[in-house]
Design brief:
This protein is α+β, with helices and mostly antiparallel strands and 138 residues long. Helix content is 20%, strand content 31%. 25% of the residues are buried. The structure holds zinc ion.
Length: 138
């Protein structure tokens, strides 16, 4: 496990696993690095994984290793964090204060959403709330 152990924890959610804050994270702080080998676009096309994080127009980080706890961060249409590239590294930063116990979420981006999420329907909290409200109406 990595050095962020203690501040973050992987826990079960309604839809699988997620990454949670154990302590309050202030706004605009580095939360965790998205780690893994750097692959070129051609290698990414051949591998067909689900944990690629785009580094630049030529390459991505393959975050599928279990050592990469950032891979447990789920998609949200209203996320509280975002990945930023610094050179050849990607760090997840907080977009607002994240309270202890809250799940950390990022927006996976349009191409991932259209390919993997749209076909089955988005199960992020804001979307689930929306569909619950809709089904409650007469
Ligand atoms: Zn959603």
């Amino acid at each position: 496990m990595n050095k962020d152990n203690g501040k973050l924890a992987v826990k079960r959610t309604a839809t699988g696993l997620g990454l949670f804050a154990l302590k309050t994270i202030p706004f605009n702080k580095r939360i965790v690095e998205y780690v893994g080998p750097i692959l070129t676009n051609e290698e990414v096309d051949q591998k067909k994984g689900k944990y690629f994080f785009e580094l630049n127009e030529k390459s991505s980080i393959d975050g599928s290793s279990r050592d990469n706890i950032a891979r447990y961060i789920n998609h949200s249409c209203r996320p509280n964090a975002k990945g930023y590239t610094t050179g050849k590294r990607i760090w997840i930063w907080s977009l607002r204060e994240i309270k202890a116990g809250e799940q950390i979420t990022i927006n996976y981006g349009k191409s991932y959403f259209d390919e993997h999420i749209k076909p089955v329907g988005c199960k992020c909290e804001p979307c689930l709330k929306k569909s619950n409200n809709r089904s409650k109406k007469p």
